[in-house]
Write a structure and sequence with these properties.
Elements lengths: L11 E7 H12 L1 E3 L1 H9 L3 E11 L6 H10 L2 E6 L1 E2 L5 E2 L3 H11 L5 E5 L6 H9 L3 E6 L6 H6 L2 E4 L5 E3 L11
Parallel strand pairs: 1-3, 1-7, 3-4, 7-8, 8-9
Antiparallel strand pairs: 2-10, 5-6
């Protein structure tokens, strides 16, 4: 891979969005939702988008089909899994391993991996991708992003207010949008 030597429309990028991480960050920090159309346009700019994958965790009692359909229309591939409820009442539902596997698998076809997440667990993945010649950009909310992830990235970009939809209030059983 050529990595950061390729600029502009020649640069092949893949975008990997941790939807759950972004949903809760937008809600907690800005009482808002992300405008995934603006986000993708801003990330891609004049580069060559190879793949954009949004990783969604489905709650059993929430219909997210309109959200996932909208993401598909915007050009995202959707990977979805059910939130697992444990016998002790806790829940498990993240895509960390899936995102890691996909980025490693797709990276040889890319010049730049764009990870949309603030999760510090991805810092070793970022380091590994860079060691294999891939440029890695991290896009997230600055206040909810692990410093080790920012430091590991080739480039860090904070999500701006212009990328958000303002909400008056959030519903209790709202999906990860």
């Amino acid at each position: 891979m050529v990595g950061s030597r390729i600029r502009g429309s020649q640069q092949r990028i893949g975008v990997f969005v941790d939807v759950q991480n972004m949903f809760y960050s937008a809600k907690a920090l800005h009482q808002s939702k992300i405008d995934y159309s603006k986000l993708l346009l801003e990330i891609v700019c004049n580069r060559n988008l190879i793949r954009a994958i949004a990783y969604v965790v489905q709650k059993p009692d929430v219909d997210q089909s309109s959200f996932t359909d909208a993401l598909k229309r915007l050009g995202y591939e959707i990977k979805s899994k059910e939130l697992r409820l444990r016998p002790d009442g806790t829940a498990k539902g993240d895509w960390d391993m899936g995102i890691a596997i996909d980025t490693i698998a797709i990276a040889p076809k890319l010049d730049t991996v764009v990870l949309v997440s603030g999760d510090g667990d991805f810092a070793p993945l970022v380091e590994m991708l860079k060691a294999h010649g891939c440029r890695v950009e991290v896009v997230s909310f600055r206040r909810s992003t692990a410093i080790e992830l920012i430091n590991a990235a080739t480039q860090y970009t904070a999500i701006e207010e212009s990328m958000l939809f303002k909400e008056k209030k959030f519903q209790k059983n709202e999906p990860y949008e």
